[in-house]
């Protein structure tokens, strides 16, 4: 009976134990499942972390590669910049070397003056002008090179120039002098050129010693004075000769003519020939004196210039030459609208009278003379032509015909003194122009006149 109870107890105990085991197994299983789930969640998190870490590493590798490429590109750019910088530095050094060489070898003296008026650079030429060494100029005030009496004014002028810098000559319309180191003064010509720098405007001065030029100008002035005196004496001589000699010539011609007419007895044939020689020679001398006087008066008895219409003037000239035109049966053709000129009316009339008279004098005996006068102009000059169909001459003599007393033909064939074209050239030269000739023997001659519309100095005053 007790064994049976024990057995039931054991069974209950066993069942309870089994139930406990089952419960414990269930609990353990649940806990294992929980743990497994936790491990799974943990594993998923770790996998997510790994993936994020891998993505981060991939992004880092991509950024690193991109940065490396950028660094390589930047390195290449820096290398190129460095190479260009080296080239520019080399070019700058070469340019500086060339500029220094040019500065030093310049034919003029060169100075560089800073804003404070101190000399920062000088070449050997300027040192030789001021009779010193280059080193003695560097750092000195530029006013030390100015004569004492002008230094205060130079400071003011330099300040004004720096306020309104411009490329120009120094001391316009007045003489400049520099003070040498030995105390002497030297005449100078100075050109100023401002250079704008970060530290302020510096002045580059080109200095020229004009001592020789001044001496030459002084010599020229003395020679001009002597020449003017000589010209006045020649003009006075021409005036005296033309007036004082005319009266004896007039008497010679008059009395010789009376003798030829037989008022005081008859000449034999030989006497008539000799008296004719006397009259002809006296008449040529009279004509020569008249031409000499006209030649000297081109400048000594000149009239002021004024605007002159050539067509009416040429009509007056043809009236003066009417008898010669009719005798030669000449055809004078004048352009309808010749340009106006700025000229001396009396001398222009004399010029055309001489030229047209020459065309009629040296006409071809086998055809009627035709004289054509034409003209044109541009902005600066008036061009005139006097063309004929006369006997002409060899072009080799085109310059000689304007010489004083120059004749291409003998006195027996053509009268005259050889002064006409010389007077023409002197008139044209007085007007600041030129006259040239083109000719061909047996065809004719063309006189070409070129006159400026405006002259720098009006010699007609």
From TrEMBL:
Residue intervals of the PAS domain: 95-149
Signal peptide coordinates: none
GO molecular-function terms, A-Z: phosphorelay sensor kinase activity
Statement: the UniProt record of this protein carries the keyword Transferase: yes
Transmembrane segments: 12-30
SUPFAM superfamilies for this protein: ATPase domain of HSP90 chaperone/DNA topoisomerase II/histidine kinase, Homodimeric domain of signal transducing histidine kinase, PYP-like sensor domain (PAS domain)
Keywords (A to Z) from UniProt: Coiled coil, Kinase, Membrane, Phosphoprotein, Transferase, Transmembrane, Transmembrane helix
Histidine kinase domain ranges (all copies): 240-455
Record-level GO cellular component terms: plasma membrane
PROSITE patterns according to UniProt: HIS_KIN (PS50109), PAS (PS50112)
InterPro entries recorded: HATPase_C_sf, HATPase_dom, His_kinase_dom, HisK_dim/P_dom, HisK_dim/P_sf, PAS, PAS-like_dom_sf, PAS_fold
NCBIfam families membership: sensory_box
Name of this protein: histidine kinase
